[in-house]
Amino acid sequence: MSKTIIKVENLGKKYQIGERQSYYSLRDSISGLFSKKKKSVDEFWALKDVNFEVKQGESVGIIGRNGAGKSTLLKILSRITPPTTGKITLDGRVASLLEVGTGFNPELTGRENIFLNGAILGMKQSEIKRKFDEIVAFSEVEKFLDMPVKHYSSGMYMRLAFAVAAHLESEILIVDEVLAVGDAQFQKKCLGKMGEVTKNEGRTVLFVSHNMGAIKQLCQRAVLLDAGEIKYFGKVDETLNRYISSETENGSYFRLKRIIDGLPDDSDFELVDVEVYQNKQLVWESVTNGDDIVLKIHFKLKNKTTGLRVYVDVCDVDNDLIFRTFHDGLDSTVLPLETGEYISSLVIPGGILGPINYNIYIQAGVYNQKNCLPFNQIKLPLSVIQTGKYNRAYPGDTFRGKLAVELEWKTLVYKSKNDN
Amino acid sequence: MTTVIKPPKSLVEINLQELWQYRELLYIFTWRDIKVRYKQTWLGIAWAIFQPLMTMVVFTVFFGNLAKIPSDGIPYPIFVYSGLLFWNYFSNSLTAASNCMVENENIIKKIYFPRILLSIGATVTPAVDFGFALVIYFVLMVIFGFTPNIWGILMIPVLLLVAMVSASGLGLFLASVNVKYRDVRYILPFFIQILMFVTPVIYPVSIVPAAFKMLAYINPMTGVISTARAMILGVGKVDGVGLLVSAFSSVLLLIFGLIYFRKTERFFADIL
After folding, report:
1. How far apart, in Å, are the Cα atoms of B127 and each of B24, B89, B137, B162, B196?
2. pLDDT in tens, B23-52
3. Shortest Cα distance, chain A CAs vs residue B37, angstroms
4. Fewer CB within a 10 Å sphere, N or C end of chain B?
């Protein structure tokens, strides 16, 4: 048996809620000195009692839903943030890749950024020089090497960033959800390269992804995290199965099913099922914002009704309404609906929802008469992963707002300096 | 190579060995900043020269000619330029060092490296501007009929070092505060402006009453600028004790800055 290379013992990370607000201001703190109110501090354990070991040459996936503690674990392993309790022993050179293109400077050329990014990721200058041609060939952007990366397309930018990352030499590689970006073909190439390195050079990889396929392809074992604790650690297939079944059985859909089954009877309306599809696949909870999301609402009408409206409320996690949409919102008359079974499909186009969490509520009512479903009961939590279009030349840009609508901009020269 | 990650201890330690391991990254950060600043080479150099020259002209007109501020018998333009040369380096370094953590937020949140590298880098980059301004200084000396004093020229790196140490010390402290309190960056320009007026940039240290002289030298830049004038221009006597006080206080500033920085550094990624 090969030696243990990563050993995590009793690891815990506590955050004080309020500590993670966007920023403090000196002004508020000074005025706070004079007010008597002591703010109560809430504690929150993002990770608790995490223990696991990884052997050399192993690839281990880390899965779990948003907020399960995956990112916190990676941040501690990468030494970006210290743990509150416990200890980690890493027996080898560590490279961590929580983002591709960290530190890329848009003003600098592709060539210069290879050196900058390489150094930030922990490569020695001599190492970068030695691998330079290989990196350039892998990136497929030779022609644009001496152009500032601000003029790169997002695809080229990602290729270059990935090419540098793929050539990291270290005994331990820690990779976050970075493969979600970039086109499918290039993703495959990167996965291939990473898998190859693990097999041939005996490198150990820790890999977080929402992409189950990638985890399956790359990892032998996987950790399932839930609410900051390890739920299961074992063979990748078994872990994935547990994850999927916990999501479907105890997760939102099972809950949803139970809620639907326990709904009070309505004399006219009966909700049968609600399903969410993306790319023609049934999805649960996690969707990406790059592709259309289809909501199918299956219901029965016991009587002919006039003015029945099925509608969907898209809310943020605080349940503030962001938008509401009606099944007949685009019609111009009130149409009576015959007795029977119906399926209403709603398409939320890709590139509307932002990479945050939402609560979606299915509602129904007869106009001016009654609610057919208890208000805000049929809840579908939805966490959206960013894969849609955005300018990747600004790597650290965080998402702001509640919707990430892809809108067309045109910037034309109105007056140029030669016009006078 | 084995890395052990544990909760931070309250004990403040500085890992020099680790800093040495990361020396290439310091070089790369500095190279990046210089590269971006001097992207358009001539514009970059022109700006590095124009800034102190223009300030010199304005100060000469208003403080020298109109307000008739004494200048120890040295022509006011070269007198004030001697001060501005070092002062600009100090204020540019201090500004850069105070903002470097917030400006490199993206990197800090995604990768580990000794954060102090950014602070060190921030005080190195303005030295390039200093170099260009220094060339102009020598030109001005020739124009005003001064023969540069050899000992004075040899003293320049020492004085620059004192300025660098004080800018780093204060910068480390302000950078940590800046990470936590984002409104610090708005107070900073005001703070630096006030600092300039308590430093003998536009006036000579000789107008400070003798009783307060040592107090003035607690400000490290007082020692730097008055020594520069005395030694490089070869006018007046060098206040050796004053310079030592200034050098000592710059080291104290650095120690204070380092301790404060090390205490807060590990949590930057959580607050940024």
Report:
1. 19, 7, 14, 13, 19
2. 999 999 999 999 988 888 788 889 889 999
3. 10
4. N
What's the gap in Å between the CA of B28 and the closest CA on chain A? 6
Give the residue on A whose Cα is nearest the Cα of B3: A90
- Check the CA dihedral B242-B247-B252-B257 and report its sign: positive
Q: Which of residues 110-129 of B touch A (CB under 8 A)?
A: 110-113
Interatomic CA distance for residues A379 and B122, integer angstroms: 51
Question: Hey, CA dihedral for A66, A72, A78, A81, is it positive or negative?
Answer: positive
CA–CA dist B140, B228 (Å, integer): 15
CB contact under 8 A, B112 and A91: no
Q: Which of A121, A101, A97, A122 is nearest to A110 (CA)?
A: A101
Separation in Å, CA A360 to CA A198, B48, B88:
41, 57, 57
Q: Does B73 touch chain A (CB under 8 A)?
A: no
Q: Do A77 and B2 touch (CB under 8 A)?
A: no
- Minimal Cα–Cα distance from B272 to chain A, Å? 7
Domain locations along chain B:
16-271
- Amino acid at residue number B206: S
Q: Is the ipTM of this complex over 0.90?
A: no
- The total number of residues shown for chain B amounts to 272
Integer CA distances (angstroms), A228 to A287, A324, B91, in order? 22, 34, 46
pLDDT for B133-142, tens place per residue?
Answer: 999 999 999 9
